[in-house]
Amino acid sequence: MRRTFIWLPWVLLIIVILSFIAWQKSQQPKPTIAADGVKMPAEKVESLVDTSRSGGVVSYSAAVKVAAPAVVNIFTTQKVKKLDHPLLNDPTFREFFGNQVPNQLDQKNENSLGSGVIVRADGYILTNNHVIAQADQIVVALYDGRRAEAKVIGTDPDTDLAVIKIDLDKLPVLPFKLSGNEVGDVVLAIGNPFGVGQTVTQGIISATGRSDLGINTYEDFIQTDAAINPGNSGGALIDVAGNLVGINTAIFSQSGGSLGIGFAIPARVCQQVLNSILKDGRVIRGWLGISLVAPTQDDVLAPKQAGVVVADVLQNGPAAQGGVKIGDKILKVNDEQITSVSHLINYVALQQPASMITLEVERNSKRENLRVKVGERKTQNQDSQYIPLPKR
């Protein structure tokens, strides 16, 4: 009995020590998957988002604090010319309408609202082209309360992007996220919906590479379910680290409000347009002068047909001079397999004007290669069933 009594306290002490060690290990952070799919320690993720003890996210405030100062509100003014018509002074006309008719319609200002993103510390801002189109005056309101009049540096209606500039110092900048976006990634939309002031909404990336929507001439959209409304035009779509994922540009809606289907122009495209405008004053793109449609497919269950069909050819255009004809099915460009209309349009747009490309076409069940000299595309506007976020 005495020997058992001597060892019992030591056994209890060892059990207590082992229990304490096990409890300490359970409190250590475990590896977590970040939004871009890369494994990182939980403490690094927690520097970007606040989580509860159970691991659930309770706040994205850190990302918002990084990005929000670089998102601006844009106020545009368009002057409406006054109307001075002889009919306004006609006695019979005035007798019928009485004193409700002024001698002339005074000049008025139409104001609208949108958003923008500061992308360079020297004052360059990205926004939607439709936000500043036809504006006589553009005023930018910063997160810190400062205001400045902006000038237009360049526009690109084919992607609905524009670059404007303000002359202020100590400007915050939102860095581009050029790759790594995946469906399911958490994103935040920051803008000025309905003119109520800067607002943040949260969602996920619902799809990438959305095209053939008829919104812009060149389409490679990120789709998100983060709430986007009128006034968000030109605002930022960011990731949980505060990087610029895209510029919010359009919504699919039957009422004009958010239905959880919004579209943003990817940061990669935004950067290309920015650099081109700053270098050349405009965006230079290749062009063939043809209209395209997807191949007719009777059996919807059959595998998707390769290539695109030429529906029309501009007379004396680059494609016509290279021998392309209506009805040709374009299968490849420079040995790259063509999968859709937007794929071919975007591929050709990246080619330098006056460069030569090889088109592999199928004509009368035979294949042949055509050499075509790329032309330069002129910008143009395009109607759409989708809603570019209206100015307010």
UniProtKB/TrEMBL annotation:
The keyword Lipid metabolism does not apply. It comes from Acinetobacter baylyi. Pfam families: PDZ_2, Trypsin_2. This is Serine protease DegS. Its EC number is 3.4.21.-. One of its GO terms (molecular function) is peptidase activity. Gene3D superfamilies: 2.30.42.10, 2.40.10.120. It comes from the Bacteria. It is an enzyme of class 3 (hydrolase). Residues 285-365 form the PDZ domain. Keywords: Hydrolase, Membrane, Protease, Transmembrane, Transmembrane helix. The chain crosses the membrane at residues 6-23. SUPFAM superfamilies: PDZ domain-like, Trypsin-like serine proteases. One of its GO terms (biological process) is proteolysis.
